[in-house]
Structure formats: C-alpha cells, structure tokens
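Hi,

Apologies if this is the wrong queue. I'm a grad student, and the batch job for 4Fe-4S dicluster domain-containing protein from Senegalia massiliensis produced an output file that my downstream script rejects. I'm not sure whether the problem is my script or the file. Here is the sequence I used:
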Amino acid sequence: MQKLLILSGKGGTGKTTIASSFVKLSEDKVFADCDVDAPNLHLVIDDLSKSITKDYYGMDKSYIHSDICISCGKCFDNCRFDAIVKKEDSYKIDTYSCEGCGVCELVCPVNAAKLQPDIAGRLDLYTEDKVFSTAELKMGSGTSGKLVTKVKERLNMPITRGKLAIIDGSPGIGCPVIASITGVDMVLVVAEPSISGITDMKRIVETSYKFGIKTAICINKYDVNIDKSQEIEYFCKNNEIPMIGKLPFDRNAIKAINIGKTIVDIDCEIGEKVKDVFNQAIKILNT
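Support response: The file is valid. Your script probably expects a header line. Output copied below for reference.
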C-alpha cells in the first residue's frame, strides 16, 4: 500500500482541510490521523462506524504503595525530576513529572516504589466502510512519536484493504512528524504565504529530504499574500520541488468545516482547485 502524508511545518495552514478532501477523493478510503496531540480529522469525515478501541501504554510510571512505604524519604531525595510529592509524612508520585527512570524503585529499601505500566492514550480503528486509524495522547504524556508509529502500524493490519492511504500528520518537525514520515512514499507540504509559514515550510522540506522521500508543495490561501506566494514558487523552482497547486482563500471552506463537511462536499472554488492538487499528487506518487 502506498502512503501519502500531508504535512505543513506549522499549524493553521489548512493541512487537515486538504487531507480530508483527499480522503473523499480517494477511492480506497484508507486513512489515518497522526496528529495524536489534537486529532480532528474525524470531525469532517461522516459515516464512521463504531471503532475498535485499545489502550495505549507509553513508558512505565512509578507508583508508591502507601501500605508498604516507611516514609524514609529516599525516593524524594533522589528524584531529579521532582516527581515525588511529600504530603505530611507520606510520599506520592506526580505522574505528570515522572519520567519513569526507576531511581525511586532502586533506592527504596522496602520495595514500596514500583514502576508499572501506564495508560498514555487511546487507539481507535474503524474498519467497516472506511479504514481509519487514529489515536489521542493523554494530557501530560510525552510519547507522541511512539503512538504515531502505532497508528501507522494499524494501517498494515490484515483487515486493511486498498492501495493508497492518506495520512494527516502533525504540525512542526518534532517526534510525531518524524514518526509520520518514516516509511511513507510521498510528502505533500501545505504552505502558507507568510513569513513564519515559509520558514516552517523550508524546515519540513529539509526534514523530508533527509528521508529521501518524494516531496511536493501546494500553497493554501495563496491570494492572501501574492508576494509571499511568489517567494514560495521561487523556492520550489530553485530547489526543483514540484509546485502542484495554488488554492485561493474561500470563505466557503470555513462554512463547510463548520457543518462537518470537506471542501469537496460542497460547490465552491477551492473544492474544484483541490481536485487538481489531488490528481497532481497521485501522478507524482506513481511516477
């Protein structure tokens, strides 16, 4: 199965708006939301069946058994992450601060401090009319990259069918993005014609190139800043990166999203333009 990943380098560029349109335009209807910190692709995808839900375990967290603890304070004295909370004569773990290093378990003379599995999020897989893999990381958990890998692995389950998967990635270039890029066949970068948009576009293009993956760019809301859009086009030309479309600012896109639709579900200019971008992306993917 080929995997087309949509990234932006920054938030707010319209990445998910375009990804959801690609899902509607794709015949296979196999897709994933790898923005596990704030997944929202499901909001504009209708007719989803009941998901198969599974707990996601990140790194182990420590736990102090109060019935065994002798309140010696060795765990408190040795925790470099300040994850041990002293309350009167007892000690507890602040799970938001615990890094799961296990020092408290090591120094505890009575084995009251123990590392144990910790639920760090939830995985959801929809498999009926559409195959949709998504997940949500629990607040305060820091293993987003591992969770993204799990989301992508579920696309490879025997129950999954189809030749093309559309993947909505995370903003930025951090761990979840690196995990998203790994193993995909092509990256489509959605660029924003602004100073920060161009800076972040260059960072994600450089990141994608380090993986040796086919990369193309489209500009969203290009007519908001023509000068910056031309700067993006020059960048593409100078670096031999395919520029596969310029999408206009269209208030109908906002109306579509507010009623839970994609931009190809309604009659609007940007919806027609994004069809050309999809066809161009598939053409490059199959080259």
